[in-house]
Amino acid sequence: MIGTGFMGRVHLEALRRVEFVDVVAVAGRQVEAAKKLAEGFGIDTVVDDYRLVLQDTTIDAVHICTPNVAHYPMTRDALLAGKHVLCEKPLAISVDEAQELVTLASERNLRNCVCHNLRYYPMVQQMRRMREDGDLGQILVVQGTYSQDWLLYETDWNWRVDAAASGPLRAMADIGSHWFDMAEHVTGLHVRSLCADLQTYYPVRKRPKQNVETFAGKLSSADSDFEEISVSTEDFGAVLFRMGDKTRGAMTASQVSAGRKNCLSIEIYGTESSVSWNQERPDELWIGHRDTPNQIIVKDPALLKTGARAYADLPGGHSEGYDDTFKQVFRRFYRSIAEPQSSVEYPQMIDGLRQMNILQAEIESHRNRNWVDV
Ligand code: SOE
Fold first, then answer.
1. β partners of residue 85
2. Which end of the chain is more exposed for a tag (fewer CB within 10 A), N or C?
3. Would you say the CB of residue 283 lies under 6 angstroms from ligand 1?
């Protein structure tokens, strides 16, 4: 495990639920935090420099849960050391970095995953299987949002705000990439062109003197000492886009939407029927019809299509949520390491490269105020 923040802990907890996988080392620059995390999970090896464990031949794979700017160098070092790599999204901070990682992983025939885990809520897989079976017909419209409120105040801070750690984009890279990955995964279509409008509401934020973990700023005391920091990354983005031949869409990504805690919402309208799903009510799926009553399915394996049922471990009425999606990805990632011929049922670095292409187009479109091909 490389990285000991919010996502490092989420990965460690999910890994403990995957059969036949043991975590044997934790790497983190804040050694005390790394030691505390490792101790809690009974992990013996703790290092402050991840390169110290890459030469350990007993280690098959590494998870990279560090700020975005570190994804490329760490993934590259791990692939060069012959490790399979599961890297948090976004894969990198530029198309060139992402392309190099895709090529390297392919040349060395190493399993590689970008953690777009939100695909693996059971009802998201139900939407995908419905589309594959033709239940939606031809996709006409895709729309939605990924909205949060944890960076609403000028005193809210996290490494994601700082371009030096996050890369040039924030809301669009951090959560917009989840939304577009899901839209492409569920529809089976690719974004072909887009027009983006980004907004930074606080060009100066007040950074608390002490480190603030992801989402933890909401609990910090209001009178902490602050220092004023210039911010170039966006709080909000709106994107018009074209998918496939005639599918059209619109989405927003926001980290300043009061009351939306972690709300990915997607609506897909086809010529036969439509579906709508919201991450804050993950066990429900709305199905829209023109000539018959609309439906709401509540997650129950008995009601799901066979392909979606594989992502529901619990019976109807037993909720499966955010943490469970990581278990579903990791189970399939490690199965593909143990059984190299098994099918790859998780997002790979080629998918991460696609998201970098979309992000690069968003930067260009916003800067030139025009449509850009992806
Ligand atoms: C913060 O926006 C964040 O932790 C993202 O970085 C994760 O990818 C998302 O799953 C939840 O919110």
1. 62, 112
2. C
3. no
293 in a domain, yes or no?
A: yes
Last residue of a domain, one of 117, 150, 182: 117
Ligand 1 near 175 CB (within 6 A): yes
Q: Give me the amino acid identity at 337.
A: I
214 lines ligand 1 (CB under 6 A): yes
| Contact between 88 and 94 (Cβ < 8 Å) | no
Distance 290 CA to ligand 1 centre (A): 35
262: Cβ below 6 Å to ligand 1?
A: yes
Q: Which domain holds residue 53?
A: 6-117
Does 107 reside within a domain? yes
Pocket test for ligand 1, best of 150, 166, 214, 263 (most atoms within 8 A of CB): 214
Residues 6+ apart with CB under 8 A from 337: 60, 61, 84, 111
Q: Which atom of ligand 1 is nearest to the CA of 322?
A: 10
Q: 254 and 174 in one domain?
A: yes
Gyration radius of the chain over CA positions: 20
Contact between residue 355 and residue 180 where contact means Cβ atoms under 8 Å apart: yes
CA 7 to ligand 1 centroid distance, Å:
8
List, run by run, the mean pLDDT of 10-residue segments along the chain (374 residues): 96 96 96 94 96 94 98 98 98 98 98 98 98 98 98 96 98 98 98 98 92 75 79 98 96 98 98 98 98 97 97 96 98 97 95 98 98 98
Residue 235 is predicted with a pLDDT of 98
